[in-house]
Write a structure and sequence with these properties.
Layout: E1 2-3, H1 6-13, E2 22-30, H2 41-52, H3 56-59, E3 60-63, E4 73-76, H4 82-85, E5 86-90, H5 97-108, E6 119-127, E7 137-145, H6 155-161, H7 184-221, E8 244-252, H8 253-261, H9 268-286, E9 296-302, E10 316-322, H10 330-351, H11 353-358, H12 365-377, E11 390-395, E12 403-404, E13 407-415, E14 424-431, E15 434-442, H13 449-470
Parallel strand pairs: 5-6, 9-11, 11-14
Antiparallel strand pairs: 1-4, 2-7, 2-13, 3-4, 6-7, 8-15, 9-10, 12-13, 14-15
Helix pairs in contact: 1-12, 7-10, 8-9, 8-13, 9-10, 9-13
């Protein structure tokens, strides 16, 4: 068995009935590339079943320590039942994008069963009128608990179930071993030892952290980087309901690259943040709620080393970036966002990204779980000062065509978790020359997701037009 890290376990502790903590992915496939021009559900079931054994997050179950005296463990489940996890659904006629997004919002709002491996997959048929996709396509929505994967490690599932050609070659099944869970007494003894040695581990952690904190203080005192002293409250920074909305857009990656190249030293991530910034500005302005101070985004950072490139679990830090929503002109806003991103990276490097994640090892497990329940039940997010306003995560995807049971992957969108005080989550993904920007929000905070999607489109159009007006390489 393998014990969850403090960061992994934190997603279990912070989960409530209204704030589920799983990551979702929507993939759309064209079955015409498969042998015979079609793919049936049984083929998908069998193909996924034989591949699941190679992905720990698809076969591991939780083993909880009594009274939550320590972080849980992962145990391989030899009785893994794929037919429980893989389900079938269909859109009613006409089978359009709006129907699909509404179904995804409902599926994404439901918690996962913690007595089984923490994932589910839905094969959704009937996509006959989704703009940009041929009739007869089907979608696959997969959700996995954040305790098991982050955006980068989630690519292991993508790699496991996809092929590089439409030829259907079912690999030999990887046997799923069955681990015997230790008894409660054994788990309590392990917890006792871990808790006794934790002060020593904390001392070692502080020895590593203090130099970074010193560097951080020096940078702030000399004003070589900026930090945020005020985070305003918006409609997205309240207690969340159990209901969700979802939508997403597709952009040509070449258009994103042209915007990036219009001004020196920009990155693709800067452009993605600027699109989100413009959309939030438009949306809040339409509600007469645009604050004078900028919206602040949390941007996750992958901290894996080369030898950890394909490791599971969560190995992410984060940086706080100003989205500069107080600036009207799109290119001026983009430049300032880029500057804020550079400052955030400087602050993160000063402390050390890995160090910023290590502190979660020392959070008492029972205290963390109790705190999450109490803050949710008392609606603390409604009056506590927000730490940030939204999340924007970017996970690059493969730039070669992928196939699932012979069907070609045409498009892919991500769905992130929201929580009390953080009710709007943006996801950026890329695949085969396209960039996919999607969002999940609490329905009580955003009853008009189609309008927000329109704001995202208009924000991109304004950036593209402004970039074309100045040409490439401006300073």
């Amino acid at each position: 068995m393998e014990q969850l890290s403090g960061l992994d376990a934190s997603f279990l502790y912070s989960e409530t009935g209204n704030a589920t903590q799983h990551i979702g992915g929507l993939s759309i496939y064209d079955p015409s590339t498969a042998p015979g021009g079609e793919v049936n559900f049984q083929q998908i079931l069998e193909n996924t079943k034989v591949r699941a054994g190679s992905v720990p997050s698809m076969v591991n179950k939780l083993v909880n320590v009594p009274w939550q005296l320590d972080h849980p463990y992962w145990k391989a489940d030899g009785d893994f039942d794929p037919e429980y996890h893989i389900r079938r659904s269909a859109l009613p006629s006409p089978g359009d994008w709006q129907q699909l997004t509404r179904l995804l919002a409902r599926l994404h709002s439901k918690t996962l069963d913690r007595t089984r491996p923490l994932w589910e997959m839905y094969v959704i048929e009937g996509l006959d009128n989704v703009e940009g996709y041929p009739a007869g396509c089907y979608a696959v929505y997969t959700k996995v608990h954040h305790a098991a994967i982050d955006g980068v490690s989630g690519m292991s599932i993508t790699t496991a179930v996809h092929d590089l050609s439409p030829e259907v070659v079912i690999p030999e099944a990887v046997p799923v071993k069955s681990e015997n869970a230790p008894g409660d007494l054994d788990l309590l003894l392990r917890a006792q030892w871990n808790n006794l040695t934790r002060p020593w581990q904390m001392l070692q952690f502080m020895q590593k952290a203090i130099p970074g904190m010193t560097r951080l203080g020096r940078k702030i005192n000399t004003e070589s980087v900026k930090r945020f002293t005020r985070v305003v409250r918006t409609r997205f920074n309240k207690t969340v309901s159990p209901h969700r909305v979802f939508d997403g857009l597709e952009f040509e990656f070449e258009d994103i690259r042209k915007i990036k190249n219009s001004i020196e030293l920009l990155t693709i991530n800067d452009v993605a943040l600027a699109i989100c910034s413009g959309a939030i500005r438009k949306y809040l302005e339409s509600k007469d709620e645009l604050p004078n101070f900028p919206i602040i985004a949390i941007v996750p950072i992958n901290v894996r080393t080369e030898d950890q490139a394909f490791s599971g679990g969560n190995q992410v830090s984060q940086m706080m970036v100003s989205l500069c929503t107080d600036i009207k002109h799109p290119l001026e806003r983009l430049v300032d966002i880029s500057s804020s991103t550079k400052d955030a990276k400087e602050l993160t490097h000063a402390i050390g990204a890995k160090t910023m994640t290590d502190y979660t090892r020392f959070i008492p497990s029972n205290l963390a779980a109790s705190a999450a329940r109490l803050t949710s039940s008392f609606g603390v997010a409604n009056y506590a000062k927000p730490v940030f306003n939204t999340v924007v995560t970017n996970v690059p995807g493969p730039q070669v065509p992928l196939y699932y049971t012979g069907a070609k992957l045409l498009g892919t969108y991500s769905l992130g978790p929201i929580a009390d005080g953080a009710g709007l989550f943006h996801s950026v993904a890329s695949y085969c020359g396209k960039l996919y920007l999607s969002f999940v929000c609490c329905r009580d905070m955003m009853a008009d997701p189609e309008f927000y999607a329109q704001c995202l489109r208009e924000s991109f159009d304004e950036l593209k037009t402004a970039a074309e007006s100045i040409g490439p390489g401006a300073k």
